[in-house]
Design goal:
This protein is α/β, with parallel strands linked by helices. The chain has 12 helices and 6 strands.
Length: 279
């Protein structure tokens, strides 16, 4: 029998909640495999949002090639999934063509799933005017308007609206990006109490490293962008700066981060292919 040499290219996806150690784990693995990393994080794409996003340090970035980090400045137009795919997918293919195993790491589940398992979303720019016309329409009715409901939950209003936007402004029939990779999912997690302590320690370090000053810089450079209000750490700092009340800042960041970690785990637990490493 002839050997089948049409083997799927190998991709290792490292996932898990925030503060679970994904970055250091991925760097260590990339060094061992002599390969490159693609970030699947919706906040690491932004320049200057460093401390609050727990972006890899300059030293960590110099250790190994890490893509999709610091690719755009914050602006009124949020970096979309379509734009992420437009930039990240060619990078992934380029690494595979070097006969290397690609490592994709991140906590933004829909970025990672779209890149590795396919997505119906195209690179259509967000349109606030169009979104405004949908604000008073029920999620149920919006879901029914979708021509293609693939991978979109009927209660996920954000993704439904985004898909309707793509549906409205795409000039051709929607093409599903079907990827054919041999994906090994590695999940990092901790006992809830330990993860909470790691979140607290990381939040304390962020404040010591100058998170408040970083927030002041971003506000002075770009103004009060929506992306800052939608990013944990910055939104709490903005509130503290407005009220001049910093007494509970740490606790607010810890609570918001823990809640986010819980939502991340809810998302990742739907993927039965993940091999979890519990520390």
């Amino acid at each position: 029998m002839q050997e089948n040499n049409l083997t799927k290219p190998k991709v290792i996806a490292i996932v898990g909640p925030t503060a679970s150690g994904k970055t250091s784990f991925a760097i260590d693995l990339a060094l061992k495999l002599n390969t490159e990393i693609i970030s699947a994080d919706s906040r690491l794409v932004y320049k200057f949002m460093d401390i609050g996003t727990a972006k890899p340090s300059s030293k960590e970035l110099s250790q190994i090639q890490q893509h999709m980090i610091n690719v755009i400045e914050p602006s009124v137009n949020e970096f979309s999934l379509g734009e992420y795919l437009k930039q990240a997918y060619p990078l992934l293919i380029n690494i595979l063509e070097k006969k290397k195993i690609v490592i994709v790491v991140g906590g933004t589940g829909f970025y990672l799933r779209a890149l590795l398992e396919g997505s119906p979303l195209k690179a259509v720019a967000p349109c606030e005017t169009f979104r405004e016309t949908l604000k008073d329409i029920s999620t149920e009715e919006l879901f029914q308007r979708l021509i293609n409901k693939r991978n979109i939950h009927e209660n996920d209003r954000f993704r439904i609206i985004r898909a309707l936007e793509v549906q409205e402004f795409s000039n051709s029939e929607e093409t599903i990006l079907e990827n054919n990779f041999d994906i090994e999912f590695i999940g990092l997690n901790f006992d809830r109490a330990i993860l909470r302590q790691r979140i607290r320690e990381r939040s304390e370090n962020m404040l010591k490293q100058g998170l408040i000053d970083e927030c002041k810089f971003l506000l002075s450079k770009y103004g009060e962008l929506e992306i800052f209000h939608k990013t944990i750490g910055y939104k709490e700092c903005i509130e503290a700066l407005k009220t001049n009340d910093f007494d509970n800042l740490l606790e607010k960041i810890v609570i918001s981060t823990a809640q986010y970690a819980k939502r991340q785990m809810t998302w990742f637990k739907t993927n039965k292919k993940i091999n979890w490493i519990n520390n």
